[in-house]
Amino acid sequence: MSAVALPAALAEVLARGDIWRGDTLASLPASAIPSGHAELDAELPGGGWPRGNLTEILIDRSGLGEMSLLLPALARLSAEGGWLALVAPPWLPHAPAWAAAGLALDRLVVVQAGKQAAWCCEQLLACGGFAGLLVWPEAGIGAQALRRLQVAAEGQATFTCLWRPLTQAVVPSPAPLRLTLAASDNGLSVQILKRRGRPAARPLNLSLPRPGRSLRALAGPSLSLATARGPAAAAVA
Predict the structure, then answer these.
(1) Number of Cβ atoms within 10 Å of the Cβ of 9
(2) How would DSSP label each residue in 23-63?
(3) Residue 144 is inside which H or E element, if any?
(4) Which of 48, 67, 140, 223 has the fewest CB atoms within 10 Å distance of its CB?
């Protein structure tokens, strides 16, 4: 290849969304879902939550208002007619809060999968019928299962989000996007541990509605503790 043709060829390669310069973020605009939080979108490759890849969110405990982070994106997917699946959630969705956030409850599927959460996710991704898939592995998830789940998510038009304990932050993962969440005075502190592109310089402090505070109809609780792991957990409360 001649020296003159090389820059044009290189520019063509760099135009691909799955290849990026080390000092920039990957750009996948066609695959991104706006998060509803402009400061976060500015730090996410493509400007939003990715489709066709695995996203990991790590927390030390539930009840931080963490679902408020995802509800705007899930509502967008729901408004587009997409189906959403929650696999092995720790509690049932609080129907009034989810409906007030703009989610169609008749297109929300809750799967109580137990130790088969990863396998269930693979099957749901393989069917190609879901716009959003959230999973909480009850008994943890091993390295092999993680790789299988990432492979299953690749190329699918699905936002796939895996919730894991904060202790797993030091364990390598094939997920292209990994974040940790912690409570802050006004909402959530979000630290991007891993993304396609340059490392994140600092945590983001996002002001979000919190359960039990203002905007009660919208914010919470996003999940209903009263029905946790009960027999009725196969349906939306």
Answers:
(1) 11
(2) TSB---GGGEE--S-HHHHTTSGGGSEESSEEEEEEESSS-
(3) helix 143-153
(4) 140
Rounded CA separation 173/152 (Å): 15
User: What is the per-residue DSSP string for 151-204?
Assistant: HHHTT-S-EEEEEEEGGGGGS--S-SEEEEEEE-SSEEEEEEEE-SBSPP-S-E
27-234 adopts what CATH topology?
A: Rossmann fold (3.40.50)
Q: What percent of the chain has pLDDT over 70?
A: 75
84 dihedral zone (left: phi>0; alpha: psi -120 to 50; beta)? beta
Q: Are 193 and 180 in contact (CB under 8 A)?
A: yes
Q: Which of 122, 202, 118 is nearest to 163 (CA)?
A: 118
Residues 6+ apart with CB under 8 A from 236: 92, 93, 95, 98, 105, 108, 110
Question: Residue 72, exposed/middle/buried by CB under 10 A (0-12, 13-18, 19+)?
Answer: middle
**Rounded Cα distance, 76 and 102, in Å:** 8
Query: CB count, 10 Å around CB of 47?
Result: 18
Question: Which amino acid is located at 79 in the chain?
Answer: A
CA distance 50 to 179: 13
- Map out the domains of the chain as residue ranges: 27-234
- What is the rounded CA–CA span in Å between residue 84 and residue 101? 14
C-alpha distance across the termini of the chain, in Å = 63
Each residue of 28-87: pLDDT tens digit? Answer: 545 799 999 999 999 999 899 999 999 999 998 887 888 989 999 999 999 999 999 999
